[in-house]
Design a protein that fits this description.
By secondary structure, the chain is an alpha+beta fold. The chain has a domain of about 90 residues: Vaccinia Virus protein VP39 (Rossmann fold), CATH 3.40.50. The chain has 6 helices and 4 strands; from the N terminus they run βαβαααβααβ. The chain has a 4-stranded mixed sheet with strand order 1-2-4-3, covered by helices on one side.
Length: about 150
């Protein structure tokens, strides 16, 4: 292929070997000189410095499977060389406290399962914030492009 994308994929994978396997497959199917484009650092993009982020800062987090340095190292191992980067706003994706509390309770934050006392404690703190319906700033997402060696 001339181009391959894996947008909004790598952050969903739980194991580093799964991320490496996706990168390997993208590299395998690319022709020499082809380009692979992927999103990186998705979870980090949602930390916009808001009051919600301050409340959620101490929550348990899993390692980011799509961390840019990891993805770049996996790409380099398959002769995919950096070819570009960009950032774009997730228009309309800024979190409101009410929506964040609901997301917490439905298990959106992977290490805080629904019904867990820690989940409820975080949700209650978020519900105590002002302007419950007011979305905070939109996240800004990152994309990386890699070119296969020719």
């Amino acid at each position: 292929f001339d181009a391959v994308t894996s947008v909004w994929l790598l952050h969903l994978l739980d194991r580093p070997e799964d991320v490496r396997a996706v990168v390997a497959e993208c590299a395998r199917v690319l022709r020499p000189g082809g380009v692979w484009v992927t999103t990186v650092d998705k979870a980090a993009a949602h930390d916009v410095g808001s009051d919600i982020d301050a409340v959620l800062a101490p929550r348990p987090r899993r390692p980011a499977p799509d961390a840019a340095p990891l993805v770049e190292s996996y790409a380099a191992g398959h002769l995919l060389h950096p070819a570009g980067r960009a950032r774009f706003p997730g228009r309309g994706q800024g979190r409101s406290p009410r929506r964040t509390a609901a997301d917490l309770r439905r298990g959106w934050f992977t290490l805080l399962p629904p019904g867990d006392p820690r989940t409820e404690a975080f949700a209650a703190r978020v519900e105590a914030l002002p302007d419950q319906e007011l979305p905070r700033p939109d996240p800004v997402f990152s994309v990386r492009a890699f070119r296969k060696a020719g």
